[in-house]
Amino acid sequence: MLVLEQLQRRFGDVVALERLDLTVAAGELCGFVGPNGAGKTTAMRCAVGVTTPDAGTVTWEGRPVSLAVRRRIGYMPEERGLYPRMRVAEQLVYLARLHGLPAATAAANTAHWLDRLGLAARRDSPVEELSLGNQQRVQLAAALVHDPVLLILDEPFSGLDPIAVDVMSEVLLERASAGVAVVFSSHQLDLVEDLCRSVAVVDAGRVVLRGDVRELKRAGDRRLRVAVDGDPGWAAALPVDTEVVARRNGEITVALGAEVDPGVVLELARASGPLLHVRLEEPRLSELFRDALQDRLPR
Amino acid sequence: MRRGTTVRLIAAREVRQRLRSKLFVGTTLVIAALLTVLAALPALLGAFDPAEPVVDPSAEESALPRLGVVGSLSLAERTAIEAAIGPIEVVEVADVDAGGAALTGTTDDLVAVVVPGERVLVAPPGQLLRPASVAATRIAEALALGELFSDDPDRVGEVLARPSLPVEEVGDVDPAEATARLVVANLGVVFLFAVLIMYASMIINGVIEEKGSRVVELLVATVPVRSLMTGKLLGLGIVGLLQTLTLFAPPLAVLLLTAGDVIPAGVGGLGVAIAGWFVAGYALYAVMAAGLGSLVSRPEEAQAVLTPANVLMIGGYLVGFLAINAPTSTFAVVASFVPFSAPYAMLVRQALAEPAWWEVALAAALTLSAAAALTVVAARIYEGGILRTGARVRLREAWRAG
Question: Is A29 among the domain residues?
């Protein structure tokens, strides 16, 4: 289990991390989301030992993340980087060996991941000759080639085409089901919602929302989406513990507190005209995200 | 995995990548071939063959130095001249003008033109094919002697034939070896400067490649930053030694094969000294290049950030040349113990002044200690600068962050 505890880090006057706590268990696929500058990259860099926190601890299985542990982490930095003139397979073998794998295992793992990610035909090409999408796949292979027990990926989906997103998603799910702890940052909240079992929302250097995605959605304010053929002013008289969170194409979305009866809101809407459509659903992750950051984000 | 294994893996990658560069290998092989041909050239041209008589004995008569004479020489004068410069062929010259024309023209090859009792004419110094000046002085002296003993020509021969006092050289310096040592000192200083500046540049470009391509973040997540730096320096150092061997081993082998008996024995040890000072100088300047390289992300910034190291390298190089002119001076002695000039100045002293063994050992120890101290500083700057991509990092910021 990866535990980031009370991490603090400043860069001059800028506070990057402010007592950040995060736990990721083996087999867990955790989405790490937050606005730009929230501290996601700094937290991930602290986790892999690239950045030293000013205070707080990072532990894996109860022990500080030593060099030996770092060798068992698969890391994809936000700023992608490989040796541009080095050949794909040679580069992966080299990185696997730096992680402590014997030469034969490094070669076998390289062959496996190149095959799995559709890069076998390019094994002897210099990285700089690959398309950006394929370079991204090599970058993923570089994070996986040494059989890591923990995967820390900073924006792994950024810049990928839909097919590559599917491949990346499959691989992450497969690794998590194999018992690897996986944490990745992303701005694609719908993707995180579909893919992850758990999520951590970070803002201003601290985790502001953390938990199982399904439970968070269940516990969050339900959304009642209503379209009425009549005056939309009905929403001005909503009962306590409800709030209009969106108006789009004549549809009004109302967030309902846990105790609110949706029928009361529907009565108000029906009074203004015939209902065109009604949908009651759990909140999307993006809505939970906005709720968590509601003091800072524009509606 | 042990730290040594990590350093070895990193060094091996550096070696592999450089040796895979067709430009690097091709250039090295072409230069090595050129140097080998140059080394073989003297042998091909027969410069080391045993001396053979240039003149056919049958043509000895006509090979005598020709001396122009306006008028005639007395027997005493001729005896004196032949006693001074050996047998001559006397050529009659009509007058002083004709003598001058014969000396400065290209048709005749007179050593000098004598106007007895008056003067000796020689060609101006620019006409190098006429080695006349020393001979002319002797001729002038002989003429004066001939005049003095004009009544008794045999006395002239007696006087000039009297053996002169022996001239002895003190010390055991072989002139050939002294010349060879001077050549080695000059070439050694130039060679050290060239390879040190070349490898400093190669290191800084290697550091910038990792930083510019951002692969460094992936590496430092796995590898201690100092191992990364050490592996890079070690790898490029090995490439440097391999390249030096490739460049110089074939021409040296050719020289030893073709002129082994001509090369003075004492010069061979200087080759070892050059290799040793390359290693010490590399250790010193390479760590500086690595530390400074971590401050920038773009190749075009490399030379600007390398300026402090370049100034020290050029300074050491100039000190080396000054030391060649005065290898026993206090300046040369002091410079040979100052780490940044020691590789050059001590090499010069070893070539020209024969310092005690402990002086060489002390200079090497001081240089390597400075390199070790500088490694600590450079490693901290490297740690502080290597992950900060984009704008150039200030030295102080890198030091604080390291």
Answer: yes
Q: Is B224 on the interface with A (CB under 8 A)?
A: yes
What would the pLDDT profile of A186-205 be if each residue is shown by its tens digit?
988 888 888 998 999 999 89
Complex ipTM over 0.85: no
Q: Which residue of B has its CA nearest to A45?
A: B221
Whether A185 and A73 share a structural domain: yes
Q: Please state the rounded mean pLDDT for residues A57-75.
A: 92
Q: Is A75–B214 a contact, with Cβ atoms under 8 angstroms apart?
A: no
Scanning every residue of chain B, which has its alpha carbon at the shortest distance from the alpha carbon of A48? Answer: B221
B7 chain-A contacts, CB cut-off 8 A: none
Q: Which residues in chain A touch residue B213, judged by CB atoms under 8 angstroms apart?
A: 81-84
Domain limits for position A231: 221-281
Q: A91 in a domain, yes or no?
A: yes
Residues A103 and A160 in one domain: yes
Tell me which residue range forms the domain holding B192.
175-401
Q: Does residue B115 sit at the A interface (CB-CB below 8 Å)?
A: no
pLDDT tens track for A156-187: 998 888 888 999 999 999 999 999 999 999 98
Q: Give the residue on A whose Cα is nearest the Cα of B7.
A: A98
Residues A194 and A58 in one domain: yes
B133 and B125 in contact (C-beta within 8 Å)? yes
Asked if B9 reaches chain A (Cβ–Cβ under 8 Å), the answer is yes
Mean pLDDT on B207-234: 86
Residues B99 and B66 in one domain: yes
